[in-house]
Amino acid sequence: MKISQEELNELINNPRHIILRGLDLSEANLPGADLSQADLGDTNLSGANLSDANLNGADLIDTDLSKANLSRASLCDVDLRRANLSKAILNKSDLSRANLMSADLVDVDLIGACLTGTRLSDTNLTKADLRGTDLSKSDLSRSRLIGANLNRVDLSGARLIRANLSEADLRDANLIGAFLGGADLSGAKLNNADLRWANLTKVNLSNADLSRAKLVDADLSEADLSEARLAKADLSDANLVNANLTKADLSEAKLIGADLSSAILRWANLAEAVYGTSTKFPAGFDPKAVGAIRNS
């Protein structure tokens, strides 16, 4: 049911609990509106202006917010399960502890948004712009982040188990202690990314760029790093047991204390890679013969 802007203004100014479930509010103009705890489930808010609005604790399950303007909006503890937010503007919004499970966030603008503790599992964030976003400790398990811009994003402690991050831009991202087991990062840009203590078991990093990345104490066991670029990366004390490093570029990488036992190093480039007595190579592998340098 489509209602007028005047009728809508009267409804939201009513001091009682706001119930707008199932209404057609497309293109509504509600900048700065107080819709906290409102029932907006299954509502059509496509193209609506909700900039600076207060939607804390609101019910937005199955709501259509495609192309809506939610810049600087407060969406703490909001329920957005299965909501359509494709091409919405959410820059500098606060989505702390929000539930976005199975939501559609394709091509969404989340630049500078706060997503601390947000539930994003099974969410579609393909080509989303998340530059400068705080996603620390968020759950992004099984989410699609194909081609997403995650430049300088804080993903420390985040759960990205079996997430699809192929071709994503994660340059300078903070992934300290992140859980990425089984994730697809093929072709991803991870230049200068901080992956210390990250769990990368069975991750697909084929053709990924990890040059100058920090991978100290990272678990890369059984990871696919074929043709990955790891030049000048710090892999000190990293677990690379059974990792596939076929044709990988490890030139000038730090391998002190790294465990490469059972790793596949066929045609890998280890020119000037630094290793020590604590570095473990596959049986019969001669690091000096391929140009690696022993650090005495």
* Strand percent estimate: under 5%
- Helical fraction equals under 10%
Nearest-integer average pLDDT:
95
Major β-sheet strand ordering: 1-2
Distance linking N and C termini = 76 Å
- Strand tally is 2
Main beta sheet, described?
2 strands, parallel
Envelope shape: elongated
pLDDT < 50 stretches: none
Structural class: little secondary structure
SSE run: HEE
Q: What's the total helix number?
A: 1
Radius of gyration: 23 Å
Describe what you observe in this structure:
By secondary structure, the protein is largely without helices or strands. The protein has 1 helix and 2 strands; from the N terminus they run H-E-E. Strands 1-2 form a two-stranded parallel ribbon. The longest helix has 8 residues, at 5-12.
Break the fold down into its secondary structure elements and pairings.
Elements: H1 5-12, E1 274-275, E2 293-294
Give the key terms.
2 strands, 1 helix, little secondary structure, elongated, two-stranded parallel ribbon, 296 residues
Q: What is this structure, in a nutshell?
A:
With 296 residues, the protein is mostly loops.
